[in-house]
Design a protein that fits this description.
Layout lengths: L2 H7 L5 H6 L4 H12 L3 H11 L2 H18 L2 H15 L6 H24 L2
Helix pairs in contact: 1-7, 4-5, 4-7, 5-6, 6-7
C-alpha cells in the first residue's frame, strides 16, 4: 500500500496533505506514525464516558487540530461538531457524535496500520 492508497482508502485525495508536508512522503509518513501512538482519542473516549465536558472539549479540540493537519476530513468534521456542541452547552448529542467518530477513527487506524505493515 502506498501513501496515496492509504488516503484513498479513507476517501481523501492526498494532494493537499502532501503539499502541506512539502510534497515529502517520508516526512508525512513519519508524522503519520506518530498518530498511531497519539493518546488524544483515548482521552476523549474516557471523558465522554465520564461526562467530563471540559475534558471532552479539550480532547476533541486537540483531535480536530491533529486531524486537520492530516486531512482526515471525517474525523475533523466529527471532532468539530463535538467542539461546537460543547461551546453551545449542548452536551446531549456528544455521546452519539463520539460513537460516529469512533467508527471513523477505527477505520482510519486500521487502514493506517495496514499501510505501515506493508512498508
Amino acid at each position: 500500500m502506498t501513501i496515496h492508497q492509504f488516503y484513498e482508502s479513507i476517501g481523501v485525495d492526498p494532494t493537499t496533505v502532501l503539499h502541506r508536508f512539502g510534497d515529502n512522503e517520508k516526512m508525512l509518513e513519519k508524522f503519520l506514525g506518530k498518530f498511531l501512538n497519539d493518546t488524544t482519542f483515548i482521552a476523549l473516549e474516557s471523558a465522554v464516558k465520564e461526562k467530563n465536558w471540559e475534558e471532552v472539549f479539550r480532547s476533541a479540540h486537540t483531535l480536530k487540530g491533529i486531524c486537520g493537519n492530516f486531512d482526515f476530513k471525517e474525523l475533523y468534521d466529527l471532532s468539530s461538531k463535538i467542539v461546537e456542541e460543547y461551546r453551545a452547552s449542548n452536551y446531549e448529542p456528544i455521546p452519539g457524535l463520539f460513537e460516529h467518530l469512533k467508527v471513523s477513527y477505527t477505520k482510519t487506524l486500521t487502514n493506517l496500520k495496514a499501510y505501515f505493515s506493508a512498508l
